[in-house]
Amino acid sequence: MDAAEAAAERFADHLAQINPTPFLHDITTKNVIVHHGQLTGIVDVDDLCFGDSLLLIALIQMALLAHGLDPAYVEEWLDIIGPDAQQRAALDLYTLQCCVDFMGELGQRFNRAQAAPVDPHYLARLRQLHAHYLDRIASF
Asked: Are residues 54 and 86 in contact, defined by beta-carbon separation less than 8 angstroms?
């Protein structure tokens, strides 16, 4: 956590420039309808988030990578948005933040009767992703 927090501090100027833009924050893979390879619908649009819409893409990216899935949905978003180098670095920071969030969920009960056991392979993948994204933003 300390390394991620220190990395985030280097982005302070960039983060201060972000306008509080409204966006649908939960258009993740579980909330889109795809038919014959085309996006045909979105569900769960009951509220908005304000800030940097790259947060959504980071969440999607981390969810897919954490579970060893193809990040093609992320690439589609990036093709639409066309982020510059600074935005791509911010996306890496946000992905790191999501990774820390995912790590924080390990061993928690949430709305279940008991906490799920921690899968050592999943934990190892999260640690690898954490190191990868720390490395990617090291030069920012």
From this structure: no
Choose between 39 and 23: higher pLDDT: 23
Element housing 50 (H / E): strand 49-51
What are the backbone dihedrals phi and psi of residue 137, each rounded to the nearest 5 degrees, phi first? -95, 5
Count: domains in the chain:
1
CATH number at residue 22: 3.90.1200.10
SS3 assignment, position 115: coil
pLDDT tens figures, 69-109: 999 889 988 999 999 999 999 999 999 999 999 999 898 88
Residues of the domain holding 63 = 2-136
- DSSP symbols for 54-110: HHHHHHHHHHHHHTT--THHHHHHHHHH---HHHHHHHHHHHHHHHHHHHHHTT--T
CB 51 within 8 A of CB 57: no
